[in-house]
Amino acid sequence: MRASNLALVLGEIHRRGPLTRAALSELTGLTKTTCSKLVGDLVEAGLVVESGALRDGERGRPGVEVRLSGDRVAALGLEVNVDYLAVCIVDLTGRVRQRRQVHVDNRGSRPGRTLADLRELAEAAVAESGLSIAGAALAVPGPVHDGVLQHAPHLGWHDVHVDLGMPLTVDNEANLAALGELWFGSGARDFLYVSGEIGIGAGLVVDGALFRGAYGFAGELGHVVVYPDGPGCRCGARGCLEVYAGQEALQAASSMERAGEALGLALASAVHLVDPGRIILGGVFAPLFPQLEKPVERVLSARLGGMRTPPSLGVSELGSDAAILGAAGHVIRQVVTDPAPYTSTRSAPA
Amino acid sequence: MRASNLALVLGEIHRRGPLTRAALSELTGLTKTTCSKLVGDLVEAGLVVESGALRDGERGRPGVEVRLSGDRVAALGLEVNVDYLAVCIVDLTGRVRQRRQVHVDNRGSRPGRTLADLRELAEAAVAESGLSIAGAALAVPGPVHDGVLQHAPHLGWHDVHVDLGMPLTVDNEANLAALGELWFGSGARDFLYVSGEIGIGAGLVVDGALFRGAYGFAGELGHVVVYPDGPGCRCGARGCLEVYAGQEALQAASSMERAGEALGLALASAVHLVDPGRIILGGVFAPLFPQLEKPVERVLSARLGGMRTPPSLGVSELGSDAAILGAAGHVIRQVVTDPAPYTSTRSAPA
């Protein structure tokens, strides 16, 4: 009961911003006494602070607002991608406190070695932040099932049980990048986020929630069929989107036109199938948007125009930080949804 | 309060099957007196019946079970498709009481004329059933927004505000067929239903609910890109799935092989994007399954095998009835979710 009430109070503060104890009592339906005790526990745990100077005996004074604290508890967002390792620390208020990215070629790397490097990068960031880390989440460039990275063809990794010596959520890079866009991006709540990295993935966000599919493998836009008889793809099939618009193809391309057309074709199929509210291009597609926009729009319009208005096309402002931000945001949501483990159980001071 | 309690009681009976009043009281948390009154109202409305002979003064006797009644209230499922009109009447227990299908070429037909014919077909079925119709839903071969059929290219209809002179829900044929499969089919709760008619559509069911997309246009499998430079499609694009595997292409095809391969290519893109629990082929694809199975499986395996196990592929048993059953099922769920309008408000007899 205490655990769910703590979550109720912290959830309101997280959702609505600073609130007085009286407002919290009204919003949660809890008595003022109960609310004050719960707020006391959250203050003591460093999850919230109260605004304004408080003198002894004045706790709960009207006008004093309770808000999330950025000073004690924070979330660790991590990423192993094909050509970089990245780490961020985001405090409970959503402010990025540390951000480190190391460019390194992880193709054909040994998972143990790469994860040890990532851990070192994370530990340095944590030490410098001086914050207490509530949890960590890791983005990887491949599908994940039950915490196991099934395969990351560009890394050459298969069936990797990721262990960083800390409690960890592991998820596909495109999924976490889409959540990063949801929580730290444009504010849209219905969109298809397209992640352009060495591989191409996508995350569909529907009414503020990530659509994962029956087995958690949804969003593999990079392997949607573009030209069935096209060049071979690393996945074993032919003519997948990634062959034409993956980062390696983009670097080798004599023309961005062809990449944009291929992206438009795959997105046309995606729009027909999932009808996203809008399309948001992220990762390397964002800086290339000036060159990609026209061919993508032209193909979307040609293929969809007879049936419907194509959804709007935009870019993410988050660059390659989208996935680590989504990872950290996931941890923040874990804390807000269940803050009890971060609080002590003794009574608040009278 | 009474309305939501009626829904609570009827919902438990609909979900769990026959229940005693005591069990209903326990499941709903309502007092036995309240439950008995609500059951009385539902009996009077003809929505439920009590099993076993009851003598005066014995209402609520333990052992007597309350179950849905098939004898008074029923749902009307309707369909306008390119080459047929169809009607069914399904009672509250889910039993099909009337089913009529008339083959007629509706290409280029006048909407008013066709809808009048459908209404006539429905009225004859209703008259013969002797049941009281709680509501109607209509399946149409095109996308629907706010009750308006946007366009049905095979019919040549555009922006048709459908009016049958009765309260009516209008929805896309593939959506309702997927719901038909959910409620009257294999029992699966996660699947992509593929509707093979003159046009090809699909309905994605996720955890027992239809996925509609941001604007209600999801599931347009027929226009997923198969060969970007292929023959022109009625939608204005080129090389859509429908060009290779729509009913007209199937009839003209020298080989089912090519249609199956095209279907496999579009389904491979769909699996990568939405990761359905399984794929269920319906409509004309069901009887053709023996010829389609191998090419579809081969293409799915070739395109997905490097990344994941392809989902299982099966057929619907509902044939061309899927959409009218889904339409009727939708109405039944409306009654169960909100039975108050079908009951009187006076007290049950003491």
From TrEMBL, chains A, B:
Transmembrane segments: none
One Gene Ontology molecular-function label: DNA-binding transcription factor activity
InterPro entries assigned: ArsR-like_HTH (IPR011991), ATPase_NBD (IPR043129), HTH_MarR-typ (IPR000835), ROK (IPR000600), WH-like_DNA-bd_sf (IPR036388), WH_DNA-bd_sf (IPR036390)
Residue ranges of coiled coil: none
Database matches in SUPFAM superfamilies: Actin-like ATPase domain, Winged helix' DNA-binding domain
Key words of the record: Kinase, Transferase
Domain HTH marR-type as annotated: residue spans: 8-50
Highest taxon listed in the record's lineage: Bacteria
Pfam families attached to this UniProt entry: MarR_2, ROK
Family according to the record: Belongs to the ROK (NagC/XylR) family.
Name of this chain's protein: Putative NBD/HSP70 family sugar kinase
Species name: Nonomuraea soli
